[in-house]
Amino acid sequence: MQGMKRLIIFILLVAAGQSGFGQAKEERKLKGKPILTIYANWHNGLGRANGDSGFELDRSYIGYEVDITEKLSGKVVLDIGPTNAEGAELERVAYVKNAMLSWKTGEFTLDFGLVSTTQFKEQEGVWGHRYLLKSFQDEYGFGSSADMGVIGRYRFADWLAADISLINGEGYKKLNSDNKYRYGIGVTLTPAKGLTVRGYFDNADKDVSGEGTKAQQTLSVFAGYRHAAFNLGAEYNKQYNTDFGEGLDQEGISVYSTVKLGWRFHAFGRYDNLWSANDWSDADTQDMTFGIEYSPLKQLKIAPNFRNQNPYSGKSNSFIYLDIEFKI
Questions:
Q1: What range defines the domain where residue 101 resides?
Q2: What sections of the chain are H helices per DSSP?
Q3: How far apart are CA 327 and CA 96, in angstroms?
Q4: pTM
Q5: Which residues contact 20 (CB under 8 A, 6 or more apart)?
Q6: Could you tell me if residue 247 is inside a domain?
Q7: Using one digit for the tens of pLDDT, what is the confidence trace for 93-128?
Q8: How many domains does the chain have?
Q9: Sequence-distant (≥ 6) Cβ neighbours of residue 138 within 8 angstroms
Q10: What are the φ/ψ torsions at residue 9 (nearest 5 degrees)?
């Protein structure tokens, strides 16, 4: 694995050096645009969950992206959301979600800094309703949507692209606390118009020692189809030695679709199934979500929806939601 890590670093540095990063000498006016995204909802539990009701401001993203040269761009984004920490006095806390530079030349792109990861970006795009639910790997903690590190992407042909990453592996909410890394490789195929097939694998170095610990590895396979009238996606994910616990494997599937109903209306549905080896995890669950999305403006989405949660270790709960996304 150390050899693979060195190979990734070598490829990124060589590609950067050969593409003339230092050749941009002419001055130019910076062109940029603000980033503002808000996720909010009203929800109400049904049956035994009837006591869970209220309005929520899920997340707010505030930032700015700018073109520095023809090849170099930058982006800074703050993520403002609930602490999710038991006993925390603060209702909201702000994180730096992205603080990155992106350099593109030809078919090669290099991101470095606090970058957006590629682990489940394709899945998130086909799912298309991030303001309701994160995609499977993000929702159940298989990986983070952003991390500190370097990611290189290259499109070899119209039907073939690949990406390699070297990141801290601790997500964007934590400072780097050790000299361990998470490094991965992904391959994306587009064999036909609208059809995307992707495979991804990564390895995270152990940040703990002792018996019963082992490096964590994540594998995912995804297929998605985009059509003018509908989207359809299916993915299988497996994580070996979750949180470096030897034998603590977990895996799951997610299937989702969005269908255009006409005049700014869409219907959507999703089914998730997460399970673990020997049922070690209390997070094991089967969840279903379906609803209608209405977009009166390009910047605004409104989605009444129904959600049913069936944890393997507990009783099922049902909720009705009204989710809102505002984005410019």
A1: 2-16+38-327
A2: 2-18, 121-127, 136-139
A3: 18
A4: 0.89
A5: 105
A6: yes
A7: 899 999 999 999 999 999 999 999 999 999 999 999
A8: 1
A9: 120, 124, 144, 145
A10: -60, -45
